[in-house]
Specification:
Elements: H1 2-35, H2 40-65, H3 75-115
Length: 122
C-alpha cells in the first residue's frame, strides 16, 4: 500500500510539474519579450532559467515532502495521503507562478524604463 501511494504521488506530482513548466514556458515567452523591451534573446534566456529553477524547487519540494506524514495502510488513507500531498504540491506550483510573474513584471518595468520604452496598458 505504501509503495503504491509513493509511486502514485511521485508520478502525479512530477507529471503536473512537467506539464505546468512546459505550459508556462511556451505561453510565457510573449510576456517575457514584452517585459524585456522586445529583446528575444534575453527573454528566451530568462525563460529557460525560470524553467530550470522551477524544476529544481518543485522536484526538491516533492521529494522532501515524500517522507512527511503518516504512511497509509488502507485505501481511504491512501486517497487522503495522495490528496493532501498532491494538493500541497499544486499550491506550491501556483504560489511560485504568481511570485515569478510578479518579480518578472517588476523587473520588466525597470528594463523598459532604462530602455525608454513605454509600458503597454493592461
Amino acid at each position: 500500500m505504501v509503495e503504491i501511494a509513493y509511486i502514485l504521488y511521485l508520478a502525479i506530482s512530477l507529471g503536473i510539474t512537467v506539464w505546468v513548466a512546459r505550459t508556462l514556458s511556451k505561453n510565457g515567452k510573449v510576456f517575457l519579450v514584452q517585459c524585456f523591451g522586445h529583446n528575444e534573446e534575453l527573454a528566451n534566456s530568462t525563460n529557460h532559467l525560470l524553467v530550470v529553477g522551477f524544476y529544481l524547487v518543485n522536484i526538491g519540494f516533492i521529494t522532501l515532502t515524500l517522507s512527511l506524514g503518516s504512511e497509509p495502510t488502507s485505501w481511504p488513507e491512501m486517497i487522503r495521503f495522495l490528496s493532501s500531498k498532491v494538493g500541497l504540491a499544486v499550491l506550491v506550483l501556483g504560489g511560485m507562478h504568481f511570485f515569478n510573474m510578479s518579480a518578472i513584471a517588476r523587473f520588466g518595468r525597470k528594463v523598459n524604463q532604462w530602455l525608454g520604452i513605454e509600458a503597454v496598458p493592461a
